## 1
Amino acid sequence: MTLEVAGKRADRLIQGTAHLSGMTQADVVALLDAVAAAGATTFDLAENYGGGASEAAFGAWLAARGGRDGLFLITKGGHPYGGRNRITRADIVADLAGSLERLRTDVVDLYLLHRDDETVPVGTVMTILHDLRERGLIRAYGVSNWHHGRIAAANAYARASEMEPVAASSPHFSLAVPVAPPWPGCVSISGPEGAAERAFYESTGTPVLAWSSLAMGYFAATPNAPAPQLEVSVFDTLANAARRDRVRALARARGLTPSQVALQYALSQPMNMHAIVGCRSGAEFRELRIAADRPLTPAEVAALEG
């Protein structure tokens, strides 16, 4: 199960970059050097992370390392601002232009729309993305936080119009089931409520790029290092606490960390699954890299779900 674009293959373990905007450039360079040395090749970015600051910091690192050889770059645009949906040609073109400038590159491997606007026909959306690909600005396109029905409709339009279909979709997925979206317009495919969404991905093989695949650090939280308030408000339920207890028990039995087991759960799904993680050190990425290559058995997956 892979995501391949123009002969370049995305890694199943994707390093996120949302946290770069809160770091000094020296710390950004140190982190990106470390995770790259630990094996990171695929990076998830977005034009709205830190108001573009994350892309700018990443682009400066790219320039300093001498380019993007061996890397697979994903970025996103079309995020709402000020309560206004921005799935329009003008907004998407402007967002992509800004991303390319900040990243100091002329093309991204995969461009995702960060949100949906269901008032916009899928044909209009696919035509915009197709045109950007035809111009050579993006190698492939996809969506983030879209429901599977819209993706199916978009792909049907693409087939009828001799366009490329959606190359990947990035919803939330983790063992922990959110009680509410952490931000407006987010789509999760976790838990019983996400069963129909997951069935779509299983049947179509559409690559899934799961954001917050470790539930924003929920499984790593301890009494001495509690989860931040956002994570608590999104995931703090009795059912999730029981899931976390089961993760901890399996981690002890296998000599792993809870984060490693949570990652294994995500990557052991019967979907074309890729996991976005926000590692803050090379050691953390290396630890998850080891776990990513050791899938759980179906029985272990079922036991974690309870």
## 2
Amino acid sequence: MAIIQKLVKAVQEVPIELQRFVQHQYPRFVTGGGFDTLEAEVPVFMFHTINRSTFQSQLEFLKRNGYRTLDLATFMAFLRGEKSLEAPSVLLTFDDGDKSWYDIAYPLLKQYGLHAVGFVVPHYIQEQPTTATASKGWLSWPELIELDHSGVIEIESHSQYHARIFTAAKLVDFFNPQLPDTLGLDVPWIGSNGSYTNQLPWGTPIYQYGPRLEGHLRYLADAEVQAACTDWVQAQGGVSFFEKSTWRRELTQYHQTLPLTQAQYETEQERQQQMLEDLAQSKEVLSHRLGKSIEHLCYPWGAGSLEAIDLSQQVGYQSNFWVSLGDRNTNRVGDSPFYIPRLKDDYLLRLPGEGRKSLFSIFQAKLRRRATTVEIY
């Protein structure tokens, strides 16, 4: 079942990529050929968990072809027209706060004399370093402080919680052991005892969801229905219940027997307050821990909103980073710092230079990776 889910996920991503090409959401160096150098632009590339061999080959490509990796101050000055580029330049960005930044990316960046920016989710950062394992893990504050103070990876905000929320009453799944484990970031946050959590009991109903900072009103799921479903799963054996091939059908049928209640949503004021807290808390925590001003925000899943931009400005952010944008596919002098598009790191090897990869080979590698891992990036 897990293999099938990965294959389905890989196939579902294909039309999204194709749509971005059709809508010209990728710069010309990605979609075309015959380029000797970049145009007057700075592509921003997006990484998550770092793979040693892949990342090393990407850094070798940049170094061999004379690319400069900018810091944020230089990048922002370029956008304002205050600084000219001395060489073809890119900005490397990491999202979330995976331990591979410290174990793999950091020493490789030092080795090649290159620079990156890390956007972290403070809520998940550990107080002390954890022992390296084969599975994913979070960075610790001592590691994060070392990275930031090194000048190799500068740390900025990825929001406090990286939260997904329910946006409608449509049932889409139940919390179960087969859900992809991406550091727990894909699990929606739900109401619990007057607060919110994404540490869910087995069998919790999962309704239609979306990124918190995209501006949706939160659907307030019925707590009694949630409790009934999780209690029922516990009575069926708890986690072992999900070993049955029929578990989803049985649990869905049980959910359908529960009384329906009128859908309720948070208010506009509650939405704005939750979004503001998510942005402000991250800024405050990182500023306190790192001993510096935090001025740059990267949206979780690259999904923001006009309201999020306004709120980010209110609390003092100077830029917003997204993924691809419909009306802007690169970064040039005069562009707004609140609509910075980024490219998945696969496309780094489409940059002009020796060792440039074909689009066909890049898509082949994407499909192989998505079919064998939980990474969609």
## 3
Amino acid sequence: MSPIHNHHFRTVILDMDGVITQTASLHAEAWKEMFDTFLEKQDGEAYESLSIEQDYKLYIDGKPRFDGVRSFLESRHIVLPEGQPDDAPGKETVYGLGMQKNELFLDSLDKEGAQVYPDTLEMLKKWKEAGLKLAVISSSRNCRRIMESAGLLDMFDALVDGVLSEEKQLKGKPAPDIFLEASNMLGVDAPDAVVIEDAVAGVEAGKKGNFGLVIGVARKNEEKLLTAAGADVVIKKLTELE
């Protein structure tokens, strides 16, 4: 029997990118293009490019955008000024690089659209029919736009994204704030909720929030990373939870 149904869980909280929508690769590619361009300017042809398998997974994935910029720069011992939230994309500040990444991501999203993982859609329908409350969380400020593009917004009982996080001053992953906000919005205690994440920072956040079950989704063979981060269960597709 599914670990979700074989318990008292009342809510499933799902990360968006990489769990619900096939946008994680768009994010990763946008981060790589932005940082590789920046690094080449800094170091010339000898620059060490951003590795999606290593750098992105360890320092960026799952974190709020500007935290991701800071984290990667710190890993390379690069110090830049913070800048201002209205810095032009590409300006060599934390905000400027973050805005450049977002511009690249939105360009890709407009071209390719937000595709939903079929296994996730199947399970969302089953959980909805079973009476479970559903929440979508994301560090992205584009979450609502992406959910609308995917035609899934009405399926969720709560949405916590980068916009709400800023309004309520919620800390980004690996802090558990956005997951706890989602469960609070639904009136469900953390031990009665399931967290489903594909990022190390997200799994760590779920464990720190004392959620009843933290499931890691390893669509690209990240089983070891997610297990090391504390995932209770690691799967490749959500339909494995049937």
## 4
Amino acid sequence: MRAGVGLVDVVTRDAHVGPLLNRLPEAMVHGDDNDNGRAPSGLDALISEASAIVAGPGLGQGAWGRERLRAIFASGLPVVLDADALNLIAAGFVPAPANAVLTPHPGEAARLLQTAITDVQRDRFAAARAIALRYQAVVVLKGAGTIVSDPSGAVSLIDAGNPGMAVGGMGDVLSGVIGALLAQGLAQSDAAACGALLQSVAGDSAAEEGGERGLLPSDLMRWLRCHANPGGR
């Protein structure tokens, strides 16, 4: 929401509803413990009203996650995929939709390419291009020097960010920012590049304010809002 999206619906397990609402009361949180092997009709209703979807963080790789991912992909909506969504695609449980933005870290990238992490890190540009071509998707390869690529072979290097951002949860922020930009009408490649840059400069502003050591994903929130607004600081 700090990146400008007007409404966020979260679908999660029933046990997670209370903690999520306590942490983020602005979100619409929906409990879903349906384990009968198919996604519930309530999810279809939420999808029908959505402009874009972020899937993967906290999803899990069991039947619950797979069925919800299939329902999301069937919608044809722009989607950002991270974490377990990428693992499910890499394992062949679900095919990646052509309108996806994939946001792997080097380990997830290696699984998507069925290669070693060292191979990904040896030539990050080639790895990003290879994932984009194989899955016909826009790819944001996270790491020191985030790379954005698309199936045409075009690449962008995000020359921002800092070592303090190498903490758990920072990639979830990136996925959310890209999803917010997709929901506001940006094309996949533009949302991916702009989202990666926005998150990186927000991280730099947060580090400038309090230092890189101990930087948390939540420290970026006010800076995302500042940098998402023209002239904001």
